[in-house]
Amino acid sequence: xxxxxxxxxxxxxxxxxxxxxxxxxxxxxxxxxxxxxxxxxxxxxxxxxxxxxxxxxxxxxxxxxxxxxxxxxxxxxxxxxxxxxxxxxxxxxxxxxxxxxxxxxxxxxxxxxxxxxxxxxxxxxxxxxxxxxxxxxxxxxxxxxxxxxxxxxxxxxxxxxxxxxxxxxxxxxxxxxxxxxxxxxxxxxxxxxxxxxxxxxxxxxxxxxxxxxxxxxxxxxxxxxxxxxxxxxxxxxxxxxxxxxxxxxxxxxxxxxxxxxxxxxxxxxxxxxxxxxxxxxxxxxxxxx
Amino acid sequence: xxxxxxxxxxxxxxxxxxxxxxxxxxxxxxxxxxxxxxxxxxxxxxxxxxxxxxxxxxxxxxxxxxxxxxxxxxxxxxxxxxxxxxxxxxxxxxxxxxxxxxxxxxxxxxxxxxxxxxxxxxxxxxxxxxxxxxxxxxxxxxxxxxxxxxxxxxxxxxxxxxxxxxxxxxxxxxxxxxxxxxxxxxxxxxxxxxxxxxxxxxxxxxxxxxxxxxxxxxxxxxxxxxxxxxxxxxxxxxxxxxxxxxxxxxxxxxxxxxxxxxxxxxxxxxxxxxxxxxxxxxxxxxxxx
Lengths: 289, 289
What we know:
Chain A is α/β, with parallel strands linked by helices. The first copy, chain A, contains 8 helices and 10 strands. In chain A, strand 2 and strand 3 (24-31) form a beta hairpin.
């Protein structure tokens, strides 16, 4: 059985055809322009592919409340043309099949809990640290929506030791995204993260912010695994630094087997950067039920 | 139908008999000494009361993992005699009825979502700020356990403006509990909270810590309501201060109907300090299913 998957991002739209095992059989990309030019190309791609359903893992914020009159739409994005666009209704109309829908980060997490490093876990978090910071959460075996959906990148953090501390977030003076996402690294050091790999002072500060945020997630969500993805986390030296600082910060307050084995608690994404599109396949599978 | 309820705290044990409507028909208290002297009194009280099940909302940390060999026990408490005591097994043996079990704060939240201000909500948090700070969480309609259970009082916070900042938590230099629980207020100002009601500078700092923590909970858990209980929150002037600072901190980043109505989003506990024992009644009811 075939399923369509759309990972809808602010710069590109990844479309794939997959099967019930999460195998990606084919994949294409389109640049994200405006709905009127971008979406018809996507729908054209999926037509005639004999897919049973489409799953959309979408950039946000989005309306996930099933009872809402605007369910399925992108809400207050600054991205021109997309604010208020109902991507779910448009897809249903164009393709006439069931459509599953969630945030991009919940999609990535769903990929990891279905086929990746968090397989079968009831409680986990997937965090992406790149141009922004976002997170998907599964809680009691279901992707977390609640009032809206988690926006874990915008929690307030204490300034790291030796950080002059200037947030690049337009909303918050000292939030995690504003202090630790890619643009913040660039603003602090004058170069993109990828050119700073050999500067320990960069990763000292970065890992303190990440570890502090992870401690909050661990204490509030009690996840069984924390998965880190996104461009900044391609700096693999960060993992051991983050685990070390996390351990120092928690300071023995939580006693669980997970805390005794941080190498398997704080882990990189496991699906070769396909976690998002694979999660979208699972959203499509679930939409058939 | 009658149910037994035990709110097991570090200083007192509240025992009650209730019905399926959460009505408390009778109630007694015993001081918390050691299990060998305290628990027989409790079991004696419940015997012959014709209760169908017992619900225990218990101080922690506790083992809530059903598959664990130590499920039902209090784990690493400093409270003499209780570390490793299996309160669930003891109750089952003494009374021969089903026993429901959760944290004290999850119990309070369960009372509020069953009969109180959060009735029917799938996602909410109950926070108690008193001698310590703890929180219960419901997520996707179920009390959150995950790896252990939430320990939301120990997240790191930035020091408040004008706070010399000294945490009284033995584990953490700048966690919420260490900076804002009752003992911290006493350490900072030399008097207990209740004697400081007319000092605005006390509540300025206190409300900043609370608002910052609530912002993290709101962004990470996406709750539909935040309920505040505990001794410190008996200072009712805190509510308007906390809502004001919360609004400033979120700064329009989340757009939901809840954010437009903070008076109904950040609210006091609603069950006259009976939320814990009423939650324990519900734990008993659920244990029969």
